[in-house]
Amino acid sequence: MRIINGPHPIKTIGIYEIFTQYPRTSLLLSSRQLQILGTLGTFIIMGMIDITGKKIIVREARASGRIFLSPETLQKVRDDKIKKGDPRPVAEIAAMNAAKETSRLIPHCHQIPLNTVELDFSLGQDFIEASCFVKAEAMTGVEMEALVGVSAALVTIWDMVKYLEKDKDGQYPSTRISDIRVLEKVKRPISQPDAT
Question: Which residues are catalytic?
């Protein structure tokens, strides 16, 4: 049975079919989710958006975010005294790896071969800001790749400075990641040169 909900087709199938026709999907669901959905008697499975026929153009996106840290931690970053090393180059590698794996992490994202992933970092009084720029020649946008990249960068920084940020109970009373957002998204023909 196929139900049309707006522009996207949705398939409704029974609990038996979820295991026989969609075995990989069933592995993504917890036993509690299966129990709840099983009582409803149906599952709703929605496929990826079909981008067949869309033109390949240059796609660019820039996302940024901040990790808020103690002044003492930030001073150790500035003085290159973090035990695991400078977190910024490690976070850059993490961001590049994560951006390239976006379609594995976010189910409806398409696999996009990326032309470049670039990271910038700036230190404020109580934060490190990361900015992730992604470019590809593709049929769909790369803003998710930029968001995943910047998120991975910030979490990597947290991992590298966590020993400094924990209180006596092993908690993080003031460390936080916030302000993750898309700053810019650009689409242009391949023949059109970069604005920079």
Answer: 159
Query: Which helix (H) or strand (E) element contains residue 188?
Result: strand 176-188
User: Tell me, which fold does domain 57-188 have in CATH?
Assistant: Alpha-Beta Plaits (3.30.70)
List C-alpha distances in Å: 155 to 83, 88, 129, 152, 170.
17, 11, 12, 5, 17
Tell me the pLDDT tens digit for each residue of 48-57: 888 999 999 9
pLDDT digits (tens, 9 = 90+) for 104-117: 999 999 999 999 99
Paired residues of 8 in beta bridges: 5
The answer to whether the beta carbons of residues 115 and 136 sit under 8 Å apart is yes
What count of residues does the chain have? 196
Domain map of the chain by residue range?
2-45, 57-188
Residue ranges of the alpha helices (H) in 66-185?
Answer: 71-78, 87-100, 102-105, 143-165
pTM to 2 decimal places: 0.77
Residue 161 φ/ψ, nearest 5 degrees: -115, 5
Look at residue 150 and give its three-state secondary structure: helix
Q: What is the DSSP string of 12-63?
A: EE-HHHHHHT-HHHHHHS-HHHHHHHHHHT-EEE------TTPPPEEEEEEE
What is the pLDDT confidence band of residue 27, given thresholds at 50, 70 and 90? very low
Contact 89, 136 (CB under 8 A): no
